[in-house]
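Dear colleagues,

For the upcoming journal club I promised to circulate an example of a predicted protein-ligand complex. I picked one with adenosine-5'-diphosphate because it came up in last month's discussion. The inputs are reproduced below in full, followed by the predicted structure.
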Amino acid sequence: MSTQLHADPDARAFVARHHRMLIGGDWVDAASGKTFDTIDPATGEVLASIPAGDSEDIDRAVKTARAAFENPVWADMHPATRGKLLHKLGDLILEHADELATLDTLDNGKPFAVARAADVPLAADLFHYMAGWATKLNGSTISLSVPYMPDAQFHAYTLREPIGVVGQIIPWNFPLLMAAWKLGPALTTGCTVVLKPAEQTPLSALRLGELILEAGFPEGVVNIVTGLGEEAGAPLAAHPDVDKIAFTGSTEVGKMIVRAAADNLKKVSLELGGKSPNLLFDDADMSQAIPGVANAVFFNQGQVCCAGSRLYVQNSVYDDVLQGMSDVAKGVKVGNGLDPATDMGPLTSQEQFDRVTGYLNIGQSEGARTITGGGRVGDKGYFVEPTILADTDHSMKVVKEEIFGPVIAVAPFKDVDELTRKANDSIYGLASGVWTKDLSKAHRAAKAIKAGTVWVNCFNVFDAALPFGGYKQSGWGREMGAEVLENYLQTKAVTTQI
Ligand code: ADP
């Protein structure tokens, strides 16, 4: 590995600080005084000590968020002013882009170049995009024809009002971006928030908390409680004074969130796991499609909920595609994310490393043919090789279960009926890809696939204006676009007899 590692001085200084959580306008230790360590996945060494919040801290943060929700400073803030605050936050993210990207590289492992080119600008875009919505959350006027009041006249309209205090629990694969996806629409609609970052990657959210205060959001509108899932996330999901919980993470934990939310019937939105199929037809432009389907699963070390982790290739081109993908995989430079030459960083945690290498073994024992990869890289940090498993079928765990690593299961197909059946044979329905030059074929496939996203001749294309979310067990509701606002609004009908 190269020793010429990128090292943003602001990020280094931030990491070295005493870390506290944000409750109200104050930076505080956990009430218990406990901490946990966040680890650099490139080295396995401790990066920083973080407050281990628990139910007491969550309770305090929820009370603070409730008071801020009811405070006229926020509740009656002019929508245009709210929009300006969001815009300013987007600007501040861009001003601190190198620092924020470095924090995510240190904490998560992803290449700095990727964080700087994708995560950080996408996070800023989300706030800029949402800023525009703040002034456009209009209701409608409705004409009434009440059958039992034939002579009466009415003036009726709807108001779209914020749901209230929102708990947001986010994962570790895109630490800053997931915080932005969640906070942007909640703040646009006038909600207040208790955000619980993932314990593996809390640093960029804490720095974002400082930028939120700098942008001028009133105290208590955003609270950030760090801590472990069971100790801080679970009490947030169960809290009786939280009106809505928004969660991104595993399907397994998503089900726990739903159960925890049942007692006060808080509203729930979920963005969960996936096992997204890529459909590669023999008439595709192979120079685009082969790197496209490979990067669909290698991007972000495969730690992407919509990773294109199942690939179906038309049998006439099956061997050529495997060969081409193998060449792509062999060209991927695995290394420390701070090294500018790195294409793929380490997995984010020891747990994640154990899980992915476990699946590599399972793939072999199930009879999948390893075309390339299949092992760890080096003996320090959580690095694994980009891996292609060929000749897979739907009896195999590596085809059915989410691996969340740079591992793709490839199989040939003969005809479109067989292909559609296989593509939809999953408990998940988050995303999918179709590769063909034939537009009719592409759009027929797009209709047939049961997934919240279909990418045609591209993959992992995100935009703040595009709704993203899952069919089936991949989730409830949508992130981004106009659709996400529905997660944070409720409609009031006002009827006046005139
Ligand atoms: P992964 O299994 O990939 O680590 P998780 O779904 O466990 O992903 O984690 C996503 C987020 O959910 C993290 O912020 C984590 O702390 C949180 N979390 C984990 N378990 C629970 C739980 N029982 N209740 C609420 N939040 C949880």
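Two points we might discuss: Residues 97 and 120 are 6 Å apart (CA to CA). The longest strand covers residues 154-162.

See you all on Thursday,
B. R.
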